Amino acid sequence: MIEVISASRLTMDDFWSKSALGLSLRRLAFDSKRLAVHLAFQNSAGLPTVYNSRISTANQSEVLLFVHDDVWIDDYFVVDRVLAGLQSFDIIGVAGSRRRVPGQRAWHYIGPGQPQEREHLSGAVGHGKNPFGRVSSFGPAPAECELLDGVFLAVKLRTLLDRAVRFDPMFDFHFYDLDFCRSARQAGLRLGTWPICLTHQSGGNFASEAWTAACGKYVQKWGD
Q1: H-state helical runs in 19-120
Q2: Which contiguous run of DSSP H or E holds residue 177?
Q3: Which DSSP letter does residue 54 get?
Q4: What is the pTM of this model?
Q5: Which of the residues 44, 76, 144, 224 has an alpha carbon 20 to 30 A from that of 10?
Q6: Considering only CA atoms, which of 150, 147, 155, 149 is closest in space to residue 54?
Q7: What is the pLDDT of residue 78?
């Protein structure tokens, strides 16, 4: 069983009738025997708080899938793809960086205005308001990575419990994914991209006030 875990500022009714993820999950209802859902509606807590609560209590689910609520899951074989990916890696995502350099503050940027070289990137993500959006192709996948985009992360529950890996509540909505990936790598886990089709409605919110504040905490914690 895969448990989809997400948080939304929307009410329950609006989530299921309007959000990209809600509409996608309704489309995937045919696979309900293998797909469970845990949602935090009208949420104001940080994503790590929501995610960690399920790591502690989702003992009936073999796999946890952490995903943003503004994601269209375009791939109706998503359950099969996630299960296949977790045969090769401990944690999978749809896009990531195959290396991490000192001072890196995003999985796809190694410095302000300095993108990671394409040879070090992997995966693909669609972007747009509607499903099946324009695809940003970063590089071949599957590939082992150091950092993964937090928009879509899947992991076996037992892996997190055995290695005592959690999301850090210090990072509400920014840097939680980079921090999680580094904690996972520190614990000896293998991260990788896997080909799964989805469309993200957001392109990110880099250099906002909240992002800058989280960046300071990230540097304080990791030092580089």
Answers
A1: 20-27, 47-57, 78-88
A2: helix 176-186
A3: H
A4: 0.94
A5: 76
A6: 155
A7: 98
Q: 18, 50 in Cβ contact below 8 A?
A: no
Residues 5/71, Cβ–Cβ less than 8 Å: no
Q: Which tens digits make up the pLDDT trace of 34-79?
A: 999 999 999 999 999 999 999 998 777 799 999 999 999 999 999 9
Q: Buried b vs exposed e over 129-161: b needs ≥16 C-beta within 10 Å?
A: eebebeeeebbebbbebbbbbbbbbbbbbebbe
- The string of pLDDT tens digits covering residues 91-145 is 999 999 999 988 888 888 877 767 788 899 999 999 999 999 999 999 999 999 9
Contacts 24+ apart (CB under 8 A), 23-29: 23/72, 24/71, 24/72, 24/73, 24/74, 24/131, 25/73, 27/73, 27/76, 28/73, 28/76, 28/78, 28/79
